[in-house]
Write a structure and sequence with these properties.
This protein has 80 residues and is mainly alpha-helical. Helix content is 61%, strand content 0%.
């Protein structure tokens, strides 16, 4: 990640922003030749982004459960 670019704190990112950045980091780590320090920084940011995405998904699930008063039925591929 270039040092002159302002990076938004992970906790301020929406799910879509965090997922897009995480996908970019994964792609970069898979293809670019980076120094070990750069790769570790990218990996650490990626870990934080993955945690953020998980937190946002869990919050959305809790909100849906509250809105449906816990009456959600489990998803089944057979229903498709």
């Amino acid at each position: 990640m270039p040092k002159n670019v302002s990076i938004k704190p992970v906790e301020e990112l929406s799910y879509e922003e965090a997922m897009a950045e995480l996908e970019k980091i994964v792609s970069t780590l898979e293809s670019d030749q980076k120094s070990l320090d750069q790769a570790m920084q990218s990996f650490e940011r990626g870990q934080a982004l993955a945690v953020r995405c998980n937190e946002l998904l869990e919050a959305a699930q809790l909100k849906i459960q509250k809105l449906t008063d816990g009456m959600l039925s489990p998803y089944s591929e057979e229903e498709e």
